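Students often ask why inverse folding is considered easier than folding. One informal answer: many sequences map to the same fold, so there is more than one right answer. In these notes we will look at a single instance of the problem. The structure comes first.
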């Protein structure tokens, strides 16, 4: 503990606290529709697929927007970007609070895009926190800033109870004082000491173009323009990702030519995608599969999210000892086994909750293990890869509730949904097995590129 305190004193702890609050409240706003979905379903008629799409839109929005937000941080003051992000993510709560009647489903989808700005805070909060501390304590500082994903716990505790007493629209207003407090902390305490390069104007314009593009794409999918029924939903992430990549600098596109990038993206789409996707959907799953109350489902969601969030630093610590490669091999195998067990047994409540806790534990440990690998493989490109890998995690989080909703609507059961994700985790396990020997080399500190040759270190302002 003394060492931790001394490490925190080596930089600006107030700036670190402001960054933690920014990510924490951003995460809270980001997955707000998850615990509220059962309440929203009482006011607005939705099919299981539509309900899954509703809670998935904020997840995908954050995945897409993290990349231009991270790019903007390369040239813009992080403190100003954070204040802008807070203001944008507060819009849904203001709109829902002021509306006299229930909104349309289309409007909720648009508001979901703005909720995703809260999840995109990851791309600004972490590097801004790190800029206030020396290199020797970056692991601790970034771990503490990333602990803001515990904001998902607040959703389960706070929103269902308020929705029960005041209605779900007014319940969303609980996010506003949290965002206001965060804005004050960011305004007075946050400092961005990182080196900047590139055009501020171009970066900000690209961010808003993608924000507007996400709104348009979500509405087009809802209208069936991009494909009737489930086709449009499944095509939305690749279309959004392609739009994002086209607007970003070459340094983002270059890493996508590497095989290892795609494998690590797949892994994170399972671990972090599982965490955020299930956090968005688990209240719906619990109320429909087990018929428990909406408030109890919210409390269970909070406990599950807490488990995943609190174990993330431990995952990084374990990976430091045995390498992230070995840790991920065990965790991916466990995730696949847990998914297949759920699918094969469709267990009763107690066993089902135990399996979900096991999944969340693996998600949290896997998140820490994955990012333990990134600085070794992509030294000098960590900022770029954080945006790319983080975006992949969000896309995984989008597909989870959508596919769960499709499985429920098509078969009346979540069995095929869990089986699908069991297969995906098994495929990721197989890929890591195939690359294991090569990955263990650079995981131990020897950096190689995808061809096996020593990689050139490319340093960007981060």
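Output (designed amino acids):
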């Amino acid at each position: 503990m003394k060492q931790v305190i001394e490490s925190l004193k080596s930089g600006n702890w107030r700036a670190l606290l402001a960054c933690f609050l920014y990510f924490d409240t951003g995460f809270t706003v980001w997955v707000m529709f998850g615990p509220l979905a059962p309440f929203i379903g009482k006011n607005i008629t939705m099919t299981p697929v539509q309900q899954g799409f509703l809670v998935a839109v904020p997840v995908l929005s954050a995945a897409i927007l993290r990349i231009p937000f991270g790019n903007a941080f390369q040239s813009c003051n992080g403190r100003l970007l954070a204040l802008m992000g807070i203001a944008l993510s507060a819009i849904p709560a203001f709109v829902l609070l002021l509306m006299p009647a229930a909104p349309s489903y289309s409007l909720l989808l648009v508001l979901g895009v703005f909720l995703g700005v809260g999840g995109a805070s990851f791309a600004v909060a972490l590097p801004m926190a790190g800029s206030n501390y020396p290199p020797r304590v970056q692991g601790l500082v970034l771990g503490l800033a990333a602990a803001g994903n515990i904001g998902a716990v607040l959703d389960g505790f706070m929103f269902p109870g308020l929705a029960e007493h005041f209605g779900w629209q007014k319940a969303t207003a609980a996010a506003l004082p949290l965002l206001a407090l965060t804005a004050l902390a960011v305004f007075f305490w946050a400092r961005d000491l990182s080196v900047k390069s590139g055009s501020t104007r171009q970066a900000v314009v690209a961010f808003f173009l993608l924000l507007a593009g996400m709104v348009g794409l979500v509405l087009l999918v809802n209208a069936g323009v991009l494909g009737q029924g489930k086709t449009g939903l499944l095509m939305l992430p690749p279309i959004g990702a392609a739009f994002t990549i086209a607007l970003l600098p070459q340094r983002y596109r270059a890493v996508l030519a590497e095989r290892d990038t795609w494998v690590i993206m797949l892994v994170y789409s399972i671990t972090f995608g599982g965490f955020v996707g299930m956090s968005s959907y688990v209240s719906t799953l619990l109320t429909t599969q087990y018929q428990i109350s909406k408030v109890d489902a919210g409390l269970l969601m909070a406990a599950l999210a807490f488990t995943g969030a609190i174990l993330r630093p431990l995952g990084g610590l374990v990976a430091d000892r045995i390498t992230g490669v070995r840790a991920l091999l065990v965790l991916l195998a466990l995730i696949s086994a847990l998914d297949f067990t759920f699918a094969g047994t469709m267990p009763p409540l107690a066993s089902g909750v135990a399996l979900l806790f096991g999944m969340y534990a693996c998600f949290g440990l896997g998140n820490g293990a994955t990012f333990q690998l990134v600085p070794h493989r992509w030294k000098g490109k960590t900022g770029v890869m954080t945006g790319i890998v983080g975006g992949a995690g969000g896309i995984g989080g989008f597909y989870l509730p959508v596919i769960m909703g499709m499985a429920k609507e098509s078969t009346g059961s979540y069995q095929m949904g869990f089986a699908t994700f069991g297969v995906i985790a098994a495929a990721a396990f197989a890929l890591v097995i195939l690359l294991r020997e090569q990955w263990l080399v650079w995981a131990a500190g020897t950096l190689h590129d995808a061809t096996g040759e020593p990689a050139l270190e490319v340093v960007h302002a981060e």
